[in-house]
Amino acid sequence: MNITFDDKQPIFQQVANIIEDDILNGTFRVDEQILSVAQFSQLFQINPATVVKGIALLVNEGILYKKRGLGMYVAMDAKQKIQMKRRDRFYNELLSNLLNEADKLGLTTEEIMDMIKQLRKE
């Protein structure tokens, strides 16, 4: 797996997002163990402390849980929590920015909807 990290957000946050993506796409399922810190560190070629910080973020959000001595596992309602978090971010950040830019361009709601429908067809 070849991952390129960007400078727009901390690497630990990007690690958390990658794990979330893997939960959403079914790579990691409920009550299934995720890769170890050492495996993630080697896979992404990053410091293990960075991986720990990303995993800790997901533990704090209730997306992962720890089985002592065994590793980290996907929580029962992890997928729903991720979807809700990302829906909120989509609404509050992405759509808000989109509408602000649309207003600057003088686009109507209908024009925006037509553009979205066109992209959905592609």
TrEMBL record:
Which intervals hold domain HTH gntR-type?
9-77
Mention one GO molecular function.
DNA-binding transcription factor activity
Q: Which Gene3D superfamilies match?
A: Winged helix-like DNA-binding domain superfamily/Winged helix DNA-binding domain
Q: List the InterPro entries.
A: Tscrpt_reg_HTH_GntR, WH-like_DNA-bd_sf, WH_DNA-bd_sf
Family matches, as Pfam families: GntR
SMART domains, A to Z = HTH_GNTR
Q: Which keywords are on file for this protein? A: DNA-binding, Transcription, Transcription regulation
Source organism's superkingdom?
Bacteria
Identify this protein by name.
GntR family transcriptional regulator
Q: Organism, per UniProt?
A: Paenibacillus tyrfis
